[in-house]
Amino acid sequence: MNDEQDVAPDSTAARVALWRALHVEADPPPRVLEDEIGLKLLAPDTDWRRRGDMDPQFTRPFRASIVARARFIEDLVVEQASRGLDQYVILGAGLDSFAQRRPEIASHLRVFEVDQPGPQAWKRRRLILHPAGDPGAGPRSRL
């Protein structure tokens, strides 16, 4: 099998990306994180919000933990970048969109998104088809 085979991200990566978008759509301000890039890359059917795992009430605590964790790490990266940090390695990157959402920070770092080659090839292709932020800021490293 070719390591660069274009394979869509697994259901966990897709669910996390959709929950991040649902946070923007369903949760009241202020937003912990503004991230609809994964939604754009996935381009799900219009009824994706009707899926059981997208129910706004049921998934609220899960969404909260996902966006809080991402925000905590991103704030830490921003703080450390101001102190000279020059690399950010995201293990199991999935549909992480830090490099696209935060180009003002990512442009000063070497951002490595480490994940399986197939989903990374898929993500690179989708970023070309649906540009979001810095088109050069995509998966740069792989397992």
Automatic annotation (TrEMBL):
Transmembrane segments: none annotated. It holds the Pfam family LCM. GO terms for molecular function: methyltransferase activity. One of its GO terms (biological process) is methylation. Gene3D superfamilies: Vaccinia Virus protein VP39. Keywords: Methyltransferase, Transferase. This is O-methyltransferase.
